[in-house]
């Protein structure tokens, strides 16, 4: 026959069971927190590793990436050149200014002078020049007048900036890359110049940029992992073809009187265009038609680009 427990013993056992339950609950909570911490730490390490790899590799080098990169130069329609050393300094500065103005990251960034002209810091201009033509290119900073539209780009050494008047660009070239060829640290692009001069409508009645190329140019870039500089721009020989291979993707197509092709170990996209049109340009940040935009500061001047 079991011996009847004294009240004090019963109370002691209850307290022991309660402490054991509390200890178990506390241990479970600690283990759960530790598991959450380990998961968070693991996720953080993975995120940092992915970010580092992306930073090292640079942006995805698609045709869209290259088109965005060369767009400021295509817009200004340069004469063919085989070395950036031969480029006119005023043209380079103007190209860099418009590259800065049309950069989405700079939207609303620049202040206006009392007369309404936009103020572009020289530091931003030099940054764009280095990005497009390399850090070795040293521009001559001075006030100059665009011979195509008589717009004056005023340089202020005191304020280390340029004052940009309102310039109406109603039509300018945009790039359509047809071939991407990578070889020995260079990237060669066959670029169709698409003009927004003649507007057409799609089946829905929306104004769209015509797809016919005005001309095709060859751009040669040097660099890797999203860090490039333009080293030459050459006219695409009429009636000839360009071919090459790359370790990435390539785009191929044909235009009247000439053909462009490229091959790669990756994917390939093809397209075609034909026809020609005259050369002129125009820029602005707002506009209702594709292929044109409008940029304003102070004053009004209009005309074709150079």
Please give the structural blueprint.
Elements: H1 7-57, H2 63-76, H3 89-101, E1 118-121, H4 122-133, E2 144-145, E3 152-156, E4 161-168, E5 173-183, E6 186-195, E7 200-201, E8 207-208, E9 213-224, E10 227-235, E11 241-242, E12 245-246, E13 250-255, E14 258-260, E15 263-264, E16 268-272, E17 298-302
Helix pairs in contact: 2-3, 3-4
Key terms for this structure?
elongated, 29% strand, 306 residues, alpha/beta
Summarize the structure.
The chain has 306 residues and is of the alpha/beta class. The protein is built from 4 helices and 17 strands.
Provide an overview of this structure.
- By secondary structure, the protein is of the alpha/beta class.
- The protein folds into 3 domains: 48 residues; 99 residues, no CATH class; 100 residues, no CATH class.
- The chain has 4 helices and 17 strands.
- The strands form 5 sheets. Strands 1, 2, 3, 4 and 17 form a 5-stranded mixed beta sheet that branches. Strands 5-6-9-10 form a 4-stranded antiparallel beta sheet. The chain has a 4-stranded mixed beta sheet with strand order 11-14-13-16, with no helix packed on it.
- A hairpin with a 2-residue loop joins strand 13 and strand 14.
- The protein is elongated and about 110 Å long.
Give the termini separation.
Answer: 112 Å
Shape: elongated
- Give me the Rg, rounded: 31 Å
Q: Beta fraction of the residues? A: 25-35%
What is the chains' assembly state? single chain
**Biggest pleated-sheet summary:** 5 strands, mixed
């Amino acid at each position: 026959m079991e011996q009847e427990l004294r009240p004090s013993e019963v109370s002691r056992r209850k307290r022991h069971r309660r402490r054991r339950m509390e200890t178990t609950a506390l241990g479970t909570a600690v283990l759960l927190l530790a598991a959450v911490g380990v998961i968070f730490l693991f996720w953080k390490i993975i995120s940092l590793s992915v970010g580092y790899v992306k930073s090292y590799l640079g942006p995805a080098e698609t045709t869209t990436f290259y088109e965005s990169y060369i767009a400021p130069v295509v817009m200004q329609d340069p004469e063919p050149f085989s070395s950036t050393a031969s480029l006119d300094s005023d043209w380079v500065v103007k190209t860099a200014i418009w590259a800065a103005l049309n950069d989405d990251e700079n939207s609303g960034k620049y202040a206006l002078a009392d007369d309404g002209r936009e103020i572009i810091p020289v530091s931003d201009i030099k940054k764009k020049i280095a990005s497009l033509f390399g850090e070795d290119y040293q521009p001559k900073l001075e006030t100059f007048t665009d011979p195509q539209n008589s717009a004056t780009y005023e340089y202020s050494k005191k304020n280390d900036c340029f004052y940009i008047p309102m310039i109406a660009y109603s039509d300018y070239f945009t790039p359509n890359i047809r071939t991407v060829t990578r070889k020995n640290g260079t990237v060669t692009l066959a670029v169709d110049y698409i003009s927004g001069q003649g507007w057409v409508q799609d089946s829905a009645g929306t104004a769209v940029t015509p797809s016919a190329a005005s001309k095709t140019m060859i751009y040669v870039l040097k660099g890797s992992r999203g860090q490039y500089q333009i080293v030459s721009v050459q006219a695409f020989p009429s009636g000839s073809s360009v071919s090459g291979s790359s370790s990435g993707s390539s785009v191929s197509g044909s235009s009247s009187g000439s053909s462009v092709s490229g091959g790669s170990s990756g994917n390939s996209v093809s397209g075609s265009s034909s026809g020609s049109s005259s050369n002129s340009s125009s820029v602005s940040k707002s506009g209702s038609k594709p292929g044109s935009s409008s940029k304003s500061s102070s004053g009004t001047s209009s005309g074709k680009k150079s």
